[in-house]
């Protein structure tokens, strides 16, 4: 079995470059780590290659599974793997995966949900990853993210999704989010935001109508421009003294309100 032992190997240098957003954008590729994520990527995505360090990952059954995937498989030394991993305690297996983000909104795809979430300048990678994971678990198929939201393929985001990134259609709009929302309004979508000043609670949201629920920035909330075009405003009831919730938590509460109605 051949093993890559040089840090200057062209494939290794290429994988290392994917730690930077500009190269992820240029090559339209990103990295996933860990056997669960790699298996999920094989099932749902287009995988360019798989890298294994047997000193860290010696599960012969899983290695045999990877060999049968008919995908380029390379074995590397621990010294080499340490230069391409993003985790403190790596499992010793990662994959290079083709990006699938959409820049152009597909109305037919959106209609699979009726009600879609849109993210306005979310900055924390953990929040974004958790939101993607939550929407997948709640049965949503689509997500719109603004161009100033943290990179969907940031390693921390990818890791936080726990594989959900492969199952959600993510539309990363190249123009201002408000322009996209205005366009969707003309297609019959209502713009929905949460607001402390709202009279109605999230329990009044109609998930069977075309609607875009906008989740705002962690510290600033929904931008003033988007607030001005909102058709409906709702609030999450809070009986304690806390005035606002984490963006991912707020998304989860709203998304699972839809789930509650489906399973009651």
| Largest sheet descriptor | 7 strands, parallel
CATH class of the largest domain: Alpha Beta
Question: What structural category do the secondary elements indicate?
Answer: alpha/beta
**CATH fold description of the largest domain:** Alpha/beta knot
Helix content: 25-40%
* Known CATH architecture of the largest domain: 3-Layer(aba) Sandwich
Strand content: 15-25%
Q: Number of helical runs?
A: 11
What is the H/E order? EHHEHEHEHEHEHEHEHEEEHEH
Q: List how many beta strands DSSP finds.
A: 12
Biggest β-sheet: strands ordered side by side in the sheet: 8-7-6-11-9-12-10
| N- and C-termini, Cα separation | 56 Å
* Anisotropy-based shape: elongated
Rg, nearest Å: 21 Å
Brief overview:
The chain has 264 residues and is of the alpha/beta class. The protein has 11 helices and 12 strands. The radius of gyration is 21 Å and the shape is elongated.
Structure description:
The chain has 264 residues and is of the alpha/beta class. It folds into 2 domains: 3-98, 60s Ribosomal Protein L30, Chain: A (2-Layer Sandwich), CATH 3.30.1330.30; 107-263, SPOUT methyltransferase, trefoil knot domain (Alpha/beta knot, 3-Layer(aba) Sandwich), CATH 3.40.1280. 36% of the residues lie in helices and 20% in strands. It has 11 helices and 12 strands. The strands form 2 sheets. It has a 7-stranded parallel sheet with strand order 8-7-6-11-9-12-10. Strands 1-4-3-5-2 form a 5-stranded mixed sheet. Helix 7 (125-137) packs parallel to helix 8 and helix 7 (125-137) packs parallel to helix 11. The longest helix is centred in the C-terminal third of the chain and has 17 residues, at 247-263.
